[in-house]
Automatic annotation (TrEMBL):
Main enzyme class: oxidoreductase
UniProt keyword annotations, A-Z: FAD, Flavoprotein, Nucleotide-binding, Oxidoreductase, Proline metabolism
Organism: Deinococcus aerophilus
Name of this chain's protein: proline dehydrogenase
Keyword Oxidoreductase: yes
Xref: Pfam families: Pro_dh (PF01619)
Top-rank taxon, per record: Bacteria
InterPro entries: FAD-linked_oxidoreductase-like, PRODH_bac_arc, Proline_DH_dom, Proline_oxidase
Amino acid sequence: MIDQLYRKAILTVSGQKFVEDIVRKQGWGLAQRFVAGEEVDGAIAAVRELQQDGILGNLDLLGEFVASPEKANEFAEKVLHLLDAAHTAGIPPYASVKLSAVGQGQTVDGQDLGLTNARRIVGRAREHGGFICLDMEDHPRVDQTLEQFRILVGEFGAQHVGTVLQSYLYRTEADRSSLDDLRPNLRIVKGAYLEPDSVAMPDKADVDASYRKLVYAHMAAGNYVNVATHDESIIEDVKHYALAHGISKEAYEFQMLYGVRRDLQKELAAAGYRVRAYIPYGRDWYPYFSRRIAERPANVMFVLRGMLKG
Ligand code: FDA
């Protein structure tokens, strides 16, 4: 309960314009702990560095909801550029995309622009032998994201596109089983948005229990699972569950955020688990940075200390 209150407080404060202005002015130096750079070169350099420790990358051009079709198309072009740049650098392009950033909810020529742009992006990833994960955003977008995911899997195959389910939502257990026919590659997360109690569990213990349940169910159904968490007790339990049920290390991977628990990422990779770091980059780092601060009280001290020094 305290965790949820803390998260709500931080996300509410960081949503204030004056707080954003101050942090944007002074915060880039601090944001670099969680963000690999403002340009694509920084992200590719981060992938190469992680590769030395046997850790894979999941590239994410930072950006959230945009209101104009021009901006959405511009963003989609930048994602295509990212996929080409990774391919040219000899890295199989594995990237994450927020559909709201490429036009989800805007109708152009009778089609949802988010889906039109997602088709271009997943198509390009497939050309390069890559993979796109559709990030999950706040709860009003879940229905449309899952519908569009289903369409994209039908057109491009589950080996080139996946999505995310959030264990804090009451609806997620039913969503997971409704996708089983696609044999989907899913990333399971706890959930990072400010959601009302009517849709999301307010108690962390329930969110954690729901997380384990989702991962086990997805594994038991024979699907590939991205176990995206820094929660060591969950990671240990998932390892034991897989061992006890004869699920091979090829059937799942651990995912963590760039700049968070690098020690644990290295340890898991050294033990032969597939590990992938989510590597965000780009100029629109503020909302992403705020969610990371909201996840852990110690991160607020990190920001305050940094700002006082600056
Ligand atoms: P929890 O919050 O319980 O933390 C477990 C431990 O990790 C604690 O010790 C904690 O202190 C430490 N920790 C967690 N976050 C930290 C941080 N920022 N800095 C330092 N330590 C930290 N969410 C979403 O809604 N949609 C999405 O698409 C995604 N995508 C995504 C991809 C990947 C690869 C990851 C790892 C996470 C996401 N998330 C997400 C975010 C997710 O919902 C969640 O907010 C964070 O992962 C934090 O929750 P944990 O599972 O780590 O557990």
